[in-house]
Each structure stands twice: as structure tokens, then as C-alpha cells.
């Protein structure tokens, strides 16, 4: 989904791996300090799916705002280097099972209260207690006692049974030592654990959070990051402003950030060209033909690659999509190279692996279902008993997905003789609400932007039973067992090898379809003199100079 950004001191643990490619870019010139100090920018956004609670935000619309409002223990440098300490003073372990985490003293939440160790422990306990319904709750599965705080619905959301009440609402593996120190005991040694700690699920929450309903807090969030929340006008604008008491290295150089919530990427691009929008993360596909975006933007354009992959996911809870041969047939009928060439004009790379190859531990070329083989696809479809009725491919219409989703549907229609078409859902927020409610009636657009730089993040959230972003409700006990083994491996190398075995099983089941690896073409206004992109291509608002 997403990643945090910024960089300060080196992490106290050498186990964290580095991201392969940099997502950094900047404009010419040094900027003007006076213009920056009181200046403001307008950036492109979409309506967040949920109120802005870190452990309940799993999509990029709300995720990048959460990343700006909060600072965690660890951050991921813009240049793709190894994770580094942010709010953590130190993260120490001798066995990758028990971690002693000391936070920097004197940092504040936006309400003026000090950030203390208990704010992490309380936030993590809240997220790990399944009745609270945090979508990112399973990110705490490594911690001892998770099996006592988190229970699953035994027969799914539509079944008559309910998830049993957990026996406790506190993780036994969390302990506050003093105001700046807490201890984390994992169920098993987990080498990748410190790498995860920059993801927003692990952000601290102020004491006031626990006096409110989560949705009330999320509509007026109080974070501890370089900007603080001002207001939120649904489907129109989210206003943020500099937090002047922020005392870590990545302080804001400008004052205000307005996130304009668009329903049409072409309208946003028109605003960008007219200098009414100061940053657009991804220009629409209509601007790619003949490198039109380069002509339009000149030196205001930026091109980079990011550890992100576009997928099409299956609603496996729908009995029509429960046959793995059918799913593989659909995947083999997709001509990824044609989509890359004709829709994206070579700015995207056809996907051939389940985890983006820019991610540490990812194995290139391990998606056998990603080959274009329409003849085998037809055979598999016949063996699966064919497909009756219409196959509708859904996407959110407020971003530039219509062209490639139409192309996929047409390829399925041509290569498999299935009555297929693509249909847009007006907004990303509604689209995601339907996905999370398990109401999708056909394959749908999905994407994964890594939360932290390790292949584990491409397996556990997406493919284990009950994973936080396993939206299609895929389940394979063999994958679960192999992923558990990989998660508890004593070294990153052993972990990566074990995850590769889990992915081999995923590849046979085809719970989703990798389609392309992202390339990213961005643009900014003339008034921005300098900026950097973080390692997933989002604007680092703390770098902006005017």
C-alpha cells in the first residue's frame, strides 16, 4: 500500500535491508527561504476510504496523509537506503525475539502532550484487539499473545457464526519499562520486525484517542508528525499546516499543504498545467502518448520507478471464481506486453513476479501465471467448466484506470470468448468500501505499494488467511504454514528463501493477477523550486522549497 518516508539517524539494528532503487528527484535551484517559510502548496489527492486512524488505513488516498501527520519509530529514506531510526533513539536485540525500544524524549503530539512509550504500547494493543476492527490488526501477529487478542470469524462475514471474543485486550509481548522505553517480545525470532516499524500501523496514538470513538478521532486526527490537521471537506479538500513544535530533523520548510480531492485525473492534470495544482503524483494515461507530458511540463516533469505493482484481484468468496483453473485461464489470457506498449507507451513494465523486483528478497520471474498463453488459457477454461454470464472488471473511475481495464476486459473477451467488460465505480472511497464489505461481483483493479522494504510485505498481508489486505478471502493452509515458517526465520536470508516457497503455492492458486510494474510520471507547478519524492514516489512534503 504505502510507505512512510523521511530520514534521520541510522537504525540501531543491522538486519534491515536496503531498497534497490531510489525514488528521489528534485528541481533546480536552492529555493527562497522567505517564500518557503510562509508558503503553501496544493497537492493531488482522492477521498480517503476511512477516517484517518493509522492502524485502520490501508489505502494510499488516506495513507499518504497519515504518513504526513504521524512519525513512527523507523523511516525509509527517500534514496532507497536501509530503514533508519526516526522517533526511536535505539532498537536493540540480541536474539531477534526480544526488542528493547527507547524513544527520543521531548517530542510532542499536535495537542501538546508528550509522546511516550505508552502511546506506542496502547496504540498497538488497540489495533491488535480484533473487536476494534482495525484493518491493519494482523500486522501485530509477530508479537507474543496475538492469538489471545485477535480472533477470526469462523464462517466469513456472511455466515451465521461470529468471531469469538478474545480472552484479553492486551498483548502479552508488550511491556512499558519507563516513559521513554518499552519492550517487545515476539512469538518467535523475526529478523524483519524492525524493518516493519516505519509502517503507519505502528504509529503512536495520543491519550485523547482512547477517550473518543475511533471514527471521531479519525475525522480530526491528532498526530505527531511535521504537519497537523486543520479541516476536511469530503470529496473536496483536506487542509494541513506546519506543526511548529516538531523537533525532529525533517521539519517543514513551507507552512500549509492543501490536499485537493479529485474525482477526475484529467481535471487534475489541467489544473497542474495551469499551475493551479502544485504536485500530481501520476499524470493520466492520456498524457503519455507521444510523451505529451514531457512537452506539456518540460522541466516540471519527473520520471521514476517505484516498488509498486498493479493487480487484478478475484472475489474468491464468489463461487464463480473459486476454481483455480478459471483464475489461471484469465491470467494467461492477458497480454501484458500489449498493455504496456499500447496503453502506457512503454512507461510500465509487464509483471512477471508476485513481489515487485525492487523489493529486497523478491524473486524475479516467479509468476508462471503471468505468461501470455491464450491456447493453454482456453484449455484451462474448458477444464474449469467454462464461465456463464457476464464477467465485469471493476475499477475506480476517479483515477486513470479506464483504458487499461478496458483493454484487459477486451482481451478476455477475445481470447476466452467470455462476455467481459470493464465498469468504473465513481470514487476510490466507494470502490474500497465495496471491496472491504466483500460485495464485489467480478474481478477488480488492485495495486500494492509496499509498506516496508521486504518481500514479507508482499505475502503476509495479501495471501495468508485473514491477512490485512487479503480482500478476496483467499485461503490455503499450505501457504499459511510456509509463511509462518518464513516469518519466524532467524535471518533475512532464510526468511526470503522460505517466502519463495510460499509464493510457489500462491502461483499455483492465482488468487490475483499481477499485470504491470509501475513506472511513474509526475509533475509539479512552476512555484516549486525544489522537492524530493520518497521511495514509493509520493511527494516528501518536508523537502518542498518555493
TrEMBL record:
InterPro entries assigned to the protein according to its UniProt record, in alphabetical order:
Peptide/Ni-bd (IPR030678), SBP_5 (IPR039424), SBP_5_dom (IPR000914)
Region listing for Disordered, in residue ranges: 151-170
Q: Where is the Solute-binding protein family domain?
A: 83-469
Signal peptide start-end: 1-27
Q: Which UniProt keywords apply?
A: Signal
Please provide, alphabetically and separated by semicolons, the GO molecular function terms listed in this UniProt record.
peptide transmembrane transporter activity
Q: Which domain of life is it from?
A: Bacteria
Q: Give Gene Ontology CC terms.
A: ATP-binding cassette (ABC) transporter complex; periplasmic space
Which PROSITE patterns does this one have? PROKAR_LIPOPROTEIN
Biological processes, Gene Ontology terms: peptide transport
**Coiled-coil portions:** none
PANTHER family documented for this protein: ABC TRANSPORTER SUBSTRATE-BINDING PROTEIN, PERIPLASMIC BINDING COMPONENT OF ABC TRANSPORTER
Q: What is this protein called?
A: Oligopeptide transport system substrate-binding protein
* Species whose genome carries this gene: Micromonospora taraxaci
